[in-house]
Amino acid sequence: MTDPAGAPGMEEDDLLPLSALSHLVFCDRRAALIHIERVWADNAYTVEGHVLHEAVDEKARRREVRRDLIIVRGVHLLALALGVAGVADVVEFHRDDGGVPLPERAGRWRPFPVEYKRGAPKPDDSDVVQLCGQALALEEMLGVEVPEGAMFYGRNQRRFPVRFDEPLRATTREAARRLRALFDSGEVPLPRYSARCEGCSLKEICQPTLDRGSGALRRYLAGLGKVT
Question: Are both 79 and 33 inside the same structural domain?
């Protein structure tokens, strides 16, 4: 099944990074700095994240087969309807009569995406939107419903189930629309300081505290037609 989002006639070369959905929901300025300006900086949190993903993506076996479970790591995904592409950390295939057939495997199997993050569950939707984007891509590619997946957080060392209900799907489609609009504009939004900025690896580059008491700056930029 295909969600009716994204641009009609989308080609693979036009697709945006699926991971950018998470960055956008967290902060549109961060998404623009990373994916438009190509800016990046590591901090202790991102280094921990790299180590966790390395353990999942590089050191573990790419494919494991158990009786009623197949685990595949580093799965390339395309979602033309959303206009994004990326790689899923892990996609499990659970034996399910309502699933899809797999090559060289008896029975039918339902995909179950699992995304790995270094920290703890976030108060916003940034992580689960990325996971939902993976689910929508799997649905489009395989033609099967993907009702749920899971987030694994390194700090907690356990999984948190995620149900892909309609509100989350709608939030994900809207994030994809906003991401496309951001890329089409080619502009980096102005900084807006919040508590989440303190843990962001791009804090020194972004300079979010410029937002504090920046009325004169905003009036100047407004005069140039940069802000409204």
Answer: yes
In a domain, 7, yes or no: no
Rounded CA-CA distance 141/131 in Å is 15
Question: In the beta sheet, which residues pair with residue 160?
Answer: 151
Is residue 45 classed as helix, strand or coil in its secondary structure? Answer: helix
Both tokens assigned to 42? 């590591």
Q: Does the residue 62 lie in any domain? A: yes
Torsion of the alpha carbons at 116, 122, 126 and 128, rounded to the nearest 10: 60
Contacting residues for 167 by C-beta, under 8 A, at least 6 apart: none
- Provide the residue range defining the domain that includes 141: 12-189
Are 22 and 94 members of one domain?
Answer: yes
Asked if the model's pLDDT at residue 213 lies above 80, the reply is: no
- Which tens digits make up the pLDDT trace of 18-27? 999 999 999 9
Question: Nearest to residue 18, comparing CAs of 30, 3, 5, 35?
Answer: 35
Task: Show the tokens assigned to 105.
Answer: 């495997």
